[in-house]
C-alpha cells in the first residue's frame, strides 16, 4: 500500500493510544526503521528521539538482534510455559537474577502486567505471613505504573491519565509529590552549558549545569514519608515507586535519599518494597537500574521496555527468595509467558548491553542534552529544563499543542511525542553527537513556538 492508502485505512479502523476516534493528532506511516532513523512512507527521514517509547536502546534493525529472532523462529516460535520450559527463557531468568540480585523471575507480557504481578505478589505475601488485613499499597503522587486496573490504581489519582476511573479503582495511600531538584539543569552552574561538552555528565564544578542532587533531600518530606508509612503500616502490603525518575506521570527526577528512606521504612514496618524499573532499567538514568542511585535492593522489581531492545513485548517481575517462599503458588499465568522469540531477543539485547560502553554513551548523550537544551532555559512558556542520563526534558507552563509541536520537530528532521506539559527525549544509546544536537535543536524550536 502507498502512504495515502495506509493512512486512509488507519483513519477508518485503527484506534491509537491515548487518542479519540477520529484522532485529533496527525498519524504518520513508517516504512522502515534503521539505526536511529525512521523512514516515513512519504519518504521523510526522522531521527527518533523517543526510542519507540524508551525501548529501542540499541537502535533499529540491529543485525545481532535480527539474527537472534531469525534463529529462534526456525527452532520454535512459541510453546506454553505451563509444565514446559526452554533455553531462551531459562537463560534470561538466570541473567536477570544475576543483574538484580533477585533470584526468582516471573516472565510477563508487558510492563503493566509485570506491575499487576508485583501487586499480586505483595498481597499474597501479606496474607501468607499473617497480614491478611494488609491489602493496600503506598506510593507517591506523580507516578505512572501502567494502564491495567491494578497498575492504574497506583498511578496519580488526580493529575494522572486514569483519574476517570478513580471511583472504581482500589483506594491506596499516596504520599505527596516527591521534591524535584535531582539531575542537571543547563547553564545553572559556573561555566554555563558549554561546560557540559567539556566536563561530561559529572557533578558539581563540571560546568554542565546544576550539580546532581544539588541541595540534598528535603528533611520535611523524609519526615512525611515516615509519618505516612507508620500511620498505615497495619494495612500496607507494599510500597511501590519508580526509583529516581517518574516517567509518564511527569518526567520528574527526585533524590535517591527518598528511595533509601522508603527501603528503611519498609524494613522497619515489615512491608515489601516494589521498584518499578520498567522505564528506568538497563542504563537509561546513567546507572544500570534506578535503585543503583540509592544503593538499595527492592523486594520486588518490575522490568520491561528496553529488555528486548524494542523488538518484542516482554517484561518480568523479580523477587527475593523470601518473598517467593512465603507466597507458594502465584495465581497468574499469561498465555505467552516466556515466549521463545521474545526471550531469545532479550538475551541478545542484554549481550549487546554488556558489550557496549553504555555508561560512556549515556554520559555523552547527557552532555549533549545539557549543551543543546541550554537555549531553551528562560524561553517564554518554559517552566523548567532538566537532564538526567539519556533523558532530556523541557517542562512548559501550559499544555503542549501536540500537533503543532510535532510539525515543528518534524520540520527539523526529528520524531518526538510530547504529552501534557512536556517536550522530552529519550534517544537510543546509539544516537551520535550530531543526532543529539538535532534533537535538542528541534525541542528548543518547539518550545520557542509555544507563544508568539
Features:
Aminotrans_3_PPA_site; 7-stranded mixed beta sheet; globular; 37% helix; alpha/beta; 4-stranded mixed beta sheet; Aminotrans_3; transferase
Can you put this structure into words, describing what you see?
With 452 residues, the protein is of the alpha/beta class. It is built from 15 helices and 16 strands. Helix 3 (63-75) runs antiparallel to helix 12 (340-355), helix 4 packs across helix 12 and helix 14 packs across helix 15 (433-448). It is globular and about 60 Å long. The model is unreliable at 189-208 (pLDDT under 50).
Structural class: alpha/beta
- Major sheet: arrangement of strands: 4-12-11-10-7-5-6
- Spatial gap, N to C terminus: 40 Å
* Helix amount: 25-40%
Strand percent estimate:
15-25%
Dominant shape: globular
What is the makeup of the main sheet?
7 strands, mixed
Number of helical runs?
Answer: 15
What's the pLDDT, averaged over the residues? 92
- Radius of gyration based on Cα positions: 22 Å
Low-confidence blocks of residues: 189-208
- Count the strands? 16
Subunit structure: Homodimer.
Organism: Microbispora corallina
Keywords: Aminotransferase, Biotin biosynthesis, Cytoplasm, Pyridoxal phosphate, S-adenosyl-L-methionine, Transferase
EC number: 2.6.1.62
Summarize the structure.
Its main location: cytoplasm. It contains 15 helices and 16 strands. The chain is an alpha/beta fold and 452 residues long.
List strands and helices in order, with pairings.
Layout: H1 3-13, E1 30-34, E2 37-40, E3 45-48, H2 51-54, H3 63-75, H4 87-100, E4 104-108, H5 111-128, E5 136-140, H6 149-153, E6 173-175, H7 194-199, H8 219-232, E7 236-241, E8 245-246, E9 252-253, H9 256-269, E10 272-276, H10 291-294, E11 300-303, E12 315-319, H11 321-327, H12 340-355, H13 358-373, E13 382-388, E14 391-396, H14 402-411, E15 414-415, E16 422-425, H15 433-448
Parallel strand pairs: 3-15, 5-6, 5-7, 7-10, 10-11
Antiparallel strand pairs: 1-2, 2-3, 4-12, 8-9, 11-12, 13-14, 14-16
Amino acid at each position: 500500500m502507498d502512504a495515502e492508502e495506509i493512512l486512509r485505512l488507519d483513519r477508518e479502523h485503527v484506534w491509537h493510544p491515548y487518542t479519540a476516534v477520529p484522532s485529533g493528532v496527525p498519524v504518520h506511516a513508517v516504512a522502515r526503521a534503521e539505526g536511529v532513523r525512521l523512514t516515513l512512507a512519504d519518504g521523510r527521514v526522522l531521527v527518533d528521539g523517543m526510542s519507540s517509547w524508551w525501548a529501542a536502546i540499541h537502535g533499529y534493525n540491529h543485525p545481532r538482534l535480527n539474527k537472534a529472532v531469525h534463529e529462534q523462529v526456525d527452532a520454535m516460535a512459541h510453546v506454553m510455559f505451563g509444565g514446559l520450559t526452554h533455553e531462551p527463557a531459562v537463560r534470561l531468568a538466570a541473567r536477570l537474577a544475576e543483574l538484580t540480585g533477585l533470584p526468582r523471575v516471573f516472565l510477563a507480557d508487558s510492563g503493566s502486567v509485570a506491575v499487576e504481578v508485583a501487586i499480586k505478589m505483595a498481597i499474597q505475601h501479606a496474607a501468607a505471613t499473617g497480614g491478611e488485613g494488609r491489602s493496600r499499597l503506598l506510593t507517591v503522587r506523580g507516578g505512572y505504573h501502567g494502564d491495567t486496573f491494578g497498575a492504574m490504581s497506583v498511578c496519580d489519582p488526580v493529575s494522572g491519565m486514569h483519574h476517570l476511573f478513580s471511583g472504581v479503582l482500589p483506594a491506596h495511600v499516596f504520599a505527596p509529590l516527591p521534591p524535584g531538584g535531582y539531575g542537571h539543569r543547563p547553564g545553572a552552574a559556573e561555566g554555563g552549558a558549554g561546560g557540559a561538552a567539556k566536563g561530561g555528565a559529572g557533578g558539581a564544578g563540571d560546568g554542565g549545569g546544576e550539580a546532581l542532587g544539588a541541595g540534598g533531600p528535603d528533611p520535611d518530606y523524609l519526615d512525611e514519608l515516615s509519618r505516612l508509612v507508620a500511620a498505615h503500616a497495619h494495612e500496607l502490603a507494599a510500597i511501590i515507586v519508580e526509583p529516581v525518575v517518574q516517567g509518564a506521570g511527569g518526567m520528574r527526577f527526585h533524590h535517591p535519599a527518598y528511595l533509601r528512606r522508603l527501603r528503611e521504612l519498609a524494613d522497619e514496618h515489615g512491608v515489601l518494597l516494589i521498584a518499578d524499573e520498567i522505564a528506568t532499567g538497563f542504563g537509561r538514568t546513567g546507572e544500570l537500574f534506578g535503585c543503583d542511585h540509592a544503593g538499595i535492593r527492592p523486594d520486588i522489581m518490575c522490568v520491561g521496555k528496553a529488555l528486548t531492545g524494542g523488538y518484542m513485548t516482554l517484561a518480568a517481575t523479580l523477587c527475593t527468595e523470601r518473598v517467593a517462599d512465603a507466597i507458594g503458588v502465584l495465581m497468574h499465568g499469561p498465555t505467552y509467558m516466556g515466549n521463545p522469540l521474545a526471550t531469545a531477543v532479550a538475551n541478545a539485547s542484554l549481550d549487546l548491553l554488556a558489550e557496549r560502553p553504555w555508561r560512556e554513551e549515556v554520559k555523552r548523550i547527557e552532555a549533549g542534552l545539557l549543551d543543546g537544551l541550554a537555549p531553551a532555559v528562560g524561553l517564554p512558556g518554559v517552566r523548567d529544563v532538566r537532564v538526567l542520563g539519556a533523558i532530556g526534558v523541557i517542562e512548559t507552563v501550559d499544555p503542549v499543542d501536540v500537533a503543532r509541536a510535532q510539525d515543528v520537530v518534524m520540520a527539523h528532521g526529528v520524531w518526538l511525542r510530547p504529552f501534557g506539559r512536556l517536550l522530552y527525549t529519550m534517544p537510543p544509546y546509539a544516537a551520535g553527537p550530531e543526532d543529539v544536537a538535532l534533537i535538542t535543536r528541534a525541542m528548543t524550536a518547539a518550545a520557542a513556538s509555544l507563544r508568539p
